[in-house]
Amino acid sequence: MSYSPDNIARIMTQNTPAPPAHTFQVDLRGLVDLLSQHLYASPRVFVRELLQNGVDAVTARRSLDPGCPDSIRFTADGAVLRVTDTGIGLTEDEVHRLLATIGRSSKRDGLDEARKEFLGQFGIGLLACFVVAETIRVVSRSARTPDATPVEWIARGDGSYTVRTLSDSDLAEATGGTEPGTTVFLEARRGCEHWFDGATVAELAADFGSLLPYDVVVGERRITGEPAPWATAHPGPAARQAALSAYCQDTFGFAPLDSIELDLPLVGVRGVAYVLPGQVSPAQRGGHRVHLKGMLLTDRADALLPDWAFFVRCVLDTDALRPTASREALYEDETLAVVRDALGARVREWLAELSVSAPDRLRRFLSVHHLGVKALALHDDEVLRLMLPWLPFETTDGELTLDELARRHDTVRYTRTVDEFRQVSAIAAAQGLAVVNGGYTYDADLVARLPEIRPQVAVAELDASAVTAHLDPVDPLDELALGPVLATARARLDPLGCDVVLRSFHPASLAALHLDDRAARAERARAEAEASADDLWSGILGALKESTPRSRLVLNHASPLVRRVGAIDDQELAGLAVEALYGQALLQARRPLRPVDQALVNRAFAGLLEWATPTPQAGLDQQDEPDRHDDEDDR
Length: 635
Ligand SMILES: Nc1ncnc2c1ncn2[C@@H]1O[C@H](COP(=O)(O)OP(=O)(O)OP(=O)(O)O)[C@@H](O)[C@H]1O
Hints:
HSP90 family protein; ATP-binding; Rossmann fold; 8-stranded mixed beta sheet; chaperone; HATPase_C_sf; 5-stranded mixed beta sheet; Ribosomal_Su5_D2-typ_SF; alpha+beta
């Protein structure tokens, strides 16, 4: 038989009598442990939950009576915390229905629009107080039903509660007045007294609630009243910028490089994106402060902006985003995606504004955050078009923008690695070639895309052969004159996979150049791996063998040193000198030395030292020897 709804209904009516229905029992202590250990990051949230209930209660009363008082007052003495609000209040029936039923909330009743007014929604907030409180006592008078009797609810951490109605004088005695509203008393749990310290509560209330629209006071300290600087009128743009910066200093603890106002009513967001004054790693994201209708939701939001915008920290107030149940993070939904796009678009728009009206500010910004903008430009054609001309690059002509470089040269070349750039920069600069160091993150990819926005500029990747082509060939007679030393050099360096050529180039101070393109390096790495691999691997690696591209040592005929080396008759000494030139060229190119290179450089160095420090003459030797023996005898 299938368990279709019809069949289930038949079984239910056939098998009478129906089994008795039971109600779930809730172990309050277990639930509180769950909240405190798994939902909330810290007990501090109890202040936010109390604030939030007070704010929601005032909001609810305002919808009935727009002129009602809007006060929320905290007092704390280290043992008892008391919060009084002038909100909607509760009747006895509502106390049973709303306070004593976990998961029930009055804020889900009504139309969606009405619900949006409230901060709470889950019906668990008051429970958070048990994380620090032994008992929760709520004394309330309803504003909706003014003739309803005041009521007192006392709940204990063991899950029991009592309800009783109060006379007006009981109410006055408990709360100091008889007006509608609610007072919540918390009695500290043992070990949690520090959370009930007046200064601590004021600090927490200020952190969570400074932007709330109502009058919040803790002890003597007024928490609200100072509207957010972005929501205030200022005497002029400079005063506005100063106020925004001061807020950043107070809230985030840094003086921003710039402040980008975020006023996006279409997505329900208002606030500021502060540009960080120093470089940060693109991986280091988040730390945005998000307020929900004034209440601080989190100061660690990380998915609020697109990844590329890692150079800003935002503070914003929204009524559009949804909190998770812990109310410490944002719910990842379509609205958040829309807000993220809108915030990204705003930051991009700000960059565009700067490029037109404040190039100095843009340059200052780029000098710190070019990495973020480069990342952005790669993913966003509009930003590429807008920012590429402004971005600084390391080039053979110094630090320049691509536009500046393209103005001086017909072709812009780039290397894919920093190493390659180091190898060729001196020689390329001397040859008048324009080369960009594309070895830094994003740079090569960006330079390669330059023709998209500057079609008249030729862009080419540079490799070793492109540089050698720009080195002047040497007169055959001159080359012949250096024949012996070239032969020695080839014999010495051939086993290292390095060819030797003679060219003439500037600067003359550069005696030798080690050129080694990527293919040569990859092949060498493969050959080394093959040599040290077991049979199977060496077979596989051997099968990958390329046509052995080799590195090249280019000796500079224009260098007086090379000519002197060429004039050495002693072939052994000439060999050492060539090896030393090879080692120097490797170091100049900042190549890591392989063991064979190291051995060669050591040999060359030691050999040259030997040669430079001649052994003492035989006569002296004999004279010295007895003396040394004498010394030893003396000892
Ligand atoms: N100060 C108050 N004044 C009036 N009603 C209150 C007050 N505090 C709580 N309530 C009532 O108790 C209900 C439950 O409160 P609780 O804080 O547990 O959850 P919530 O605020 O509805 O939702 P959330 O869990 O999202 O905070 C509320 O929906 C509200 O009706």
